[in-house]
From TrEMBL:
One of its GO terms (molecular function) is dynein light intermediate chain binding. GO terms for cellular component: dynein complex. Keywords: Hydrolase. PANTHER family: DYNEIN HEAVY CHAIN (PTHR45703), DYNEIN HEAVY CHAIN, CYTOPLASMIC (PTHR45703:SF36). Belongs to the dynein heavy chain family. It comes from the Eukaryota. This is Dynein heavy chain isotype 5B. Its EC number is 3.6.1.3. Coiled coil: none annotated. One of its GO terms (biological process) is microtubule-based movement.
Amino acid sequence: FQYGYEYLGCSLRLVITPLTDRCYLTLTGAMHMHLGGSPAGPAGTGKTETVKDLAKAVGKLCLVFNCSEGLDYKMMGKFFSGLSQSGSWCCFDEFNRIDVEVLSVIAQQLHSIKTAKDANALRFMFEGRDIRLNLTCGVFITMNPTYAGRVELPDNLKSLFRPVSMMVPDYALIAEIMLFSEGFTSARSLSNKIVNLYQLASKQLSQQDHYDFGMRAIKSVLVMAGQRKRKAQMESAEAKPLSELEEAFILIHALRDANMPKFLAEDVPLFESILADLFPGIDPPQPDFGVLEKAISMAIRDLTLQHWPSQIEHVKQLHSQILVRHGVMLVGPSGGGKTSVRSILQRALVVLPTIHLEEGNEKGKTIMKTYGKKGRVDTFTLNP
């Protein structure tokens, strides 16, 4: 394959497993025969990320587009026209959500592109227009067979794609490599415990729509653990690596912070018992929320609300989640305190810089001229 020299930035690379190797071979073989690739499997198995990482390996721009029932053949024709002329790759997520009538037209559009590629043509007729053809363009689709509203692809469209089954990723190997990349020396034993924990939790805990024990949830825990490990090493006066016990402490804190906020009250003891069985005799110290708790108390007083320990705990959980996630969803019945928790945290984050500066002054540190300056948190509410 000719390298595309597309600047893609310093993005993270995919963890290579036997499954991704097999997917790479299938996709490159499909490209060699001027066909597309069709990874299929449940959500969170790495279908889209594998296509994106292959594009990065050959220096190509890969656009990801989420398909829906509202797509029509005119919009898809514009997509294919741009891909054919630019030589880019495109990965259509959840391709089997498109209506079957549109899929039949898409099959004709892709067939005309493949025919021009087979003839090594420099230009070809597409949708009544004579356009230039870049032979390095590629089309990939991902499908979720468990999706309720899926559509069976027409046979003439199936023949233009090589299927790849990506049903069960190697969770333990992926977790081990990610922990090693974050600097954990006991990554092998910790990765097995994480995978066993999520497998047991998915079977023993209650079944809720917002519970997720898949690869995405495991990855978020690993990223959170890596951030905490780097923070602990920066705060430590000694340059020596952390011990296995300290690494276990960090991982347990990450597992609790990532999962406890989403559990129902009756599932919390079950999760704690599973955690105690996998990490016997390890009871990490509770994190220090002294400054944040002081800011929360000030915010509750300013908002003339009552001090409820459970509500304060939810505020701390929300704060820990927004530090590691792009978006956080508060789920609960009407009158459950969702808006109050958000308002308290918003107010606490406004007064938090002031508390930090006051503590620095008490310890005899040099204070800048911005002493007493409050922070700013902008929020807005959407009522659907």
